[in-house]
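hey can u check if this looks right to u? its 141 residues, i copy pasted from the old doc so theres a chance i mangled smth
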Amino acid sequence: MAAMVGERRGVIAAINVTPMADVMIVLLIIFLVVTPLIVEDERLQVPSARHGLAEEPRPSLVVALRRDRSLALGDEPLPSAEDLEVRLQAALAAEPNGRRTVWLRADRQLTYADVGPVIERCRAAGAEEVALAVALDGSGS
């Protein structure tokens, strides 16, 4: 690419950073849009525990029970416990035997009387295990 530079003619040996700047702006926009979607549900605070497994559950098998006793399967809100059982049966049918674990994220303010029926619904839907999600306490004591 030849261009006139003052009185001299010749090749300009400079890097064109415009495409790189365009890519960086697109990445910035993507991160700005995606970040709010990754944030945990602020209406749900799970209880803390000293010991637990740091296992990552499959999103389609996570049941959330919020403080207002509303239910969600993954990120999808559910109108009733009956809907939970029906949708959970469909999700568990795709899982092989021995891998049908449902993760229950129940708010720490709820009592066993609130959580127990949801555990029973999960078991009735075909869950082999119902694991309670907790926030791991880093104190170690």
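The chain has two domains: 2-38, 48-136.
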